[in-house]
Amino acid sequence: xxxxxxxxxxxxxxxxxxxxxxNETEDDILAYIKAQKGH
Length: 39
What we know:
Layout: H1 11-22, H2 26-37
């Protein structure tokens, strides 16, 4: 994933961008982010 362009994006814009790139739902992405922060 390209992190350069995400630095200026809001959180919801990042979620939408991730949805387009991964074809996952927002719930899936939020669960993934929570799992990452748990480490």
